[in-house]
Amino acid sequence: MSLNEQKLWTDLGPVDSFPLGKPIPGRIEDEEVLVVNLDGKFHVFERKCPHQSRYLDECQIREGRIHCIYHMVTFSLDDGHIIDDGGYIGLPDLIIYRTKIQDDRLWASPAGQNPKEVI
Fold first, then answer.
1. What is the reported pTM?
2. DSSP 95-109
3. CA-CA 20 to 30 A from 41: which of 13, 97, 105, 116?
4. Do residues 15 and 104 touch, judged by C-beta distance below 8 A?
């Protein structure tokens, strides 16, 4: 990985340190994130629900959705868009991070940043 790519990607640790189906806290620079391993596909998203900043550590993940157990807000696991706002109009989407595996380690980068475009 080039030096420019390393600036955009954060090493979250060995892939075998993320058990199946259990959200594990991590950090990307100053942001708290959760990592979820679903059958070997890794998802990384912001750790706090954008509604009242409650931790999503106990969230329910099923059918490609993240369910906040505190306010019943549901987000897409793929892109963070709100599927069901639980009656809370105007909530922002959940921040989702891009992931890749390199040398048996999980790396994450903020969505929308493409390392190939960095000079």
1. 0.84
2. PEEEEEEETTEEEEE
3. 116
4. yes
Give dist(CA 17, CA 11) in Å, integer: 12
pLDDT digits over 44-100, tens only? Answer: 999 999 888 899 999 999 999 999 999 899 999 989 999 999 888 899 999 999 999
Query: What percent of the chain has pLDDT above 70?
Result: 87
Q: Is the pLDDT of residue 117 over 60?
A: no
Domain ranges of the chain: 3-110
Beta-ladder partners of 48? 55
Among candidate residues 63, 91, 89, the one with its CA nearest the CA of residue 76: 63
- Written as six digits, the tokens of 26 are 């991590």
